[in-house]
UniProtKB/TrEMBL annotation:
KW Lyase (keyword) present: yes
Protein name from the UniProt record: 1,4-dihydroxy-2-naphthoyl-CoA synthase
UniProt record similarity statement: Belongs to the enoyl-CoA hydratase/isomerase family.
Source species taxonomy: Eukaryota, Viridiplantae, Streptophyta, Embryophyta, Tracheophyta
Organism: Dendrobium nobile (Orchid)
GO molecular function: 1,4-dihydroxy-2-naphthoyl-CoA synthase activity
Catalytic activity field: 2-succinylbenzoyl-CoA + H(+) = 1,4-dihydroxy-2-naphthoyl-CoA + H2O
Alphabetized UniProt keyword annotations: Lyase
Signal peptide feature range: none
Length: 272
């Protein structure tokens, strides 16, 4: 069972399991098929930040409230000529920041999809590291129908996942695909009965949590590095530095500086 974290949110639920290492973030706008506005995204980013900073958390589930939708993308009622607006005078596309945050987060993020994952909601599940789908899940890109598109991760990651021909089909035709079709296309990792969705997703999390957190951290970064270009290399490079800081060799440099002497690296082998 996942326990409430005590944080106050309006558009999402954020829960952390006690002692299990799992956080669960739920978009809570079922009356709009879990469409997001700028405020929803801000709350999601806060929750993801918290899960990142909490060292007891090793896997994060992203899902939607109810069984009808994971997420139906940007709330079209909030759409303006400059993005999406709720309480502010300027529109935003801050979902792009959330996509980057999920991508850069050094812990696995698992999309748990029941019902529709469409439009910007489909992109969200694609930027997650893994996707577990219920049999009732439906996937698709509706952008071209409603006069929108995601020419960033929504295009490039999709092309990686399903190949350029299928990606063009998804975007150009705005078709919907059922869970088994999505599995065949490489969009999802597993399809399970709706009633087993949470159980199965938690099982995947537990399997991840049995493994080395550092290995997983570096693997996520490595598996994203090529597609993320300089930013991907920067992330992977940061992991190398973080691991190097734990070595005697790196400490010799710091110690020498603090002790106002020259560093002595002579005892460290120049490995083949
Ligand atoms: C999701 C889908 C296929 C569900 O269909 P259905 O028949 O199950 O439900 P229904 O009746 O369409 O929706 C239920 C209520 O949710 C609202 C509807 O307007 C309806 O409201 P009421 O009539 O009950 O008042 N609703 C659903 N999705 C909404 C949305 N995205 N925004 C605002 N209200 C929404 C069907 O509802 C559907 O096709 N939804 C639209 C999907 C869509 O086109 N999303 C936007 C794509 S663009 C995008 O997300 C994006 C981007 O391309 C780039 C950057 C950022 C965002």
């Amino acid at each position: 069972a996942l326990d409430e974290s005590g944080q106050e949110f309006t558009d999402i639920h954020y829960e952390k399991s006690v002692g299990e290492g799992i956080a669960k973030i739920t978009i809570n706008r079922p009356e709009r098929r879990n469409a997001f506005g700028p405020h929803t995204i801000k709350e999601l980013m806060r929750a993801f930040n918290d899960a990142r900073d909490d060292s007891s958390i090793g896997a994060i589930i992203l899902t939607g409230k109810g069984t009808k939708a994971f997420c139906s993308g940007g709330d079209q009622a909030l759409r303006t000529s400059d993005g999406y607006t709720d309480f502010e005078s300027f529109g935003r596309l801050n979902v792009l920041d959330l996509q980057v945050q999920i991508r850069r987060l050094p812990k696995p993020v698992i999309a748990m999809v029941a019902g529709y994952a469409v439009g910007g909601g489909h992109v969200l599940h694609m930027v997650c590291d893994l996707t577990i789908a219920a049999e009732n899940a439906i996937f698709g890109q509706t952008g071209a129908k409603v006069g929108s598109f995601d020419a960033g991760y929504g295009s490039s990651i999709m092309s990686r996942l399903v190949g350029p021909k299928k990606a063009k089909e998804m975007w150009f035709l705005s078709r919907f695909y059922n869970a088994y079709e999505a599995e065949k296309m490489g969009l999802v990792n597993a399809v399970v009965k709706l009633e087993n969705l949470e159980l199965e997703t938690v099982k995947w999390c537990r399997e991840i949590l049995r493994n080395s957190p550092t290995a997983i951290r570096v693997l996520k970064s490595a598996l994203n590095a090529v597609d993320d270009g300089h930013a991907g290399l920067q992330d992977l490079g940061g992991n190398a530095t973080y691991i190097f800081y734990g070595t005697e060799e790196a400490n010799e440099g710091k110690r020498a500086f603090m002790e106002r002497r020259s560093p002595d690296y002579s005892k460290f082998p120049r490995r083949p």
